[in-house]
Amino acid sequence: MSRIRRYGGIGGIALRQLVYHRVRTLLTILGIVLAVLSVTLLLGIGAGVLETGEQLVDSTERDLWISGGPTELNPESVGGFRNPIVDSHAVAAEIDARDDVSAAVPLAYNAVYISTDGEEFETVLSVGVGGSGPAISLQAGEGFSPGDTHLVDGEYTGPLNQEVIIGPDLADKKDLAPGDTLYLGGTLRNAKANEFSVVGISPTFSTLTGTETVTVRLSDLQTLTAMSLSDRSSLITVTVTDDADVETVHTKLQQAYPDFTIRTNQEQITAVLERQALILTGGLSLSLLALLAGIFFSLNLFLSLIYQQRTEFAIFRATGGSTGSILLLALLQAVVIALLGVSIGMLLTPIAATALEEVTIVITGFEGQ
Predict the structure, then answer these.
(1) Helix, coil or strand: residue 211
(2) Theoretical Cys-Cys bridge with 110: which of 79, 96, 159, 177, CB 3.0 to 4.6 Å?
(3) pTM, full prediction
């Protein structure tokens, strides 16, 4: 009983000390809260990058990604992008004809001019979609009409499809809705000459790229940006049949097309992240730094708390208190403060994460799913 009373007495002294020096105690708890938030938020950012990347790639409902190299900037070309795959419609049709493939769709990226009145133009990213196109989640409108009026028997001889799907941010910015018209082209001259009908509003590509986008038929984009002669695209996305194994199809396609790089969804995510190696390394370093800083900051706070009570501890020692009791007293104070600080920090993490996400969306325009 004497030992229990001793520990109870030390616990009472520890709590009274914390209550008596309430300002110092609150500041110490606040420091622990900030340390916890810095660690949880930075680690959460790293995990969120991977999770969002997987969601975005999976949302296209494609199994394999075929590329002929990176899409590069080319200031001398119309639109400013060099799409690496040539004869993309023919290659996609050849792959689509395989028994283990249900769809092969070429995609191209380029910059285009757009305007609602034909007078004031701005540049946005355009995505050209071939064939049936990847899964496009429509918020409004019916989407593209069936078939391709411009590409006829492999020749760009028909009239342009002149249909466009726009991102929700662009729709709000320009006050556009399905049925409205949009001037669009790779140069100011052909943009003024081509009116496209808005047939849908979709966040698919604006979410994937993190910027305002317009989506048109691949053949239209190729003609408007001078890519039709070589039938260029950035990627060919492939969906395998339900009874086919993705890895098996991957291996067969890579053997059949050795000049192309063919990736699964997970490999595509990895490739994107590798191109952002500097950013990821910085994020990892920040996470490690936050963890170490949190530990050292917390330790410094506890040592400062003990140092500031050196007079009280000296009096306690002079009145017969043992060194072990003083250590137990300091340990109890540290445990109480740590528990309160960590608990509050964990409770505030979801709120802080939501606020950080909103700020990120405002700054970058990128919104996870």
Answers:
(1) coil
(2) 79
(3) 0.63
